[in-house]
Amino acid sequence: MKGAIGEKVSETEYAQKFYQSEEYKKIQDYRKEVNEFKSDLREHVDNSHNPVVQVANSAVDKIVNNSACAEAIIAMKRYDPDFDLEELSDEAMEIF
């Protein structure tokens, strides 16, 4: 439904004028710059040799990529607002 509405709006005269305006071109340029910045930042973070950046990047990747893990962490934080994943990891390492 969203796509159909978007198509109808895009076909209007006002939308066509907007797509041809300087403002729209500026928005497109800005979006391109933002995407390039994000790509460059991701590349710098991935290639960083800084141990703090590597650990933070690894933690973010684990949480984002493991949706079941992310859901579990969210549930744990709801149960215990002071829950800290790193602290849990440290405690687990002490046991073994």
Low-confidence stretches: none
Shape: elongated
Quaternary structure type: single chain
Protein structure class: mainly alpha
What does this structure look like?
The longest helix has 25 residues, at 22-46. It contains six helices and no strands. By secondary structure, it is mainly alpha-helical. Helix 4 packs across helix 5 (67-79). 83% of the residues lie in helices and 0% in strands. The protein has two domains: 1-47, no CATH class; 50-96, no CATH class.
Question: In summary, what is this structure?
Answer:
This protein has 96 residues and is mainly α. Helices cover 83% and strands 0% of the residues. The protein folds into 2 domains: 47 residues, no CATH class; 47 residues, no CATH class.
Q: What keyword list fits this structure?
A:
96 residues; mainly alpha; 2 domains; 6 helices; 0% strand
Write the layout of secondary structure elements.
Layout: H1 2-10, H2 13-19, H3 22-46, H4 51-65, H5 67-79, H6 85-95
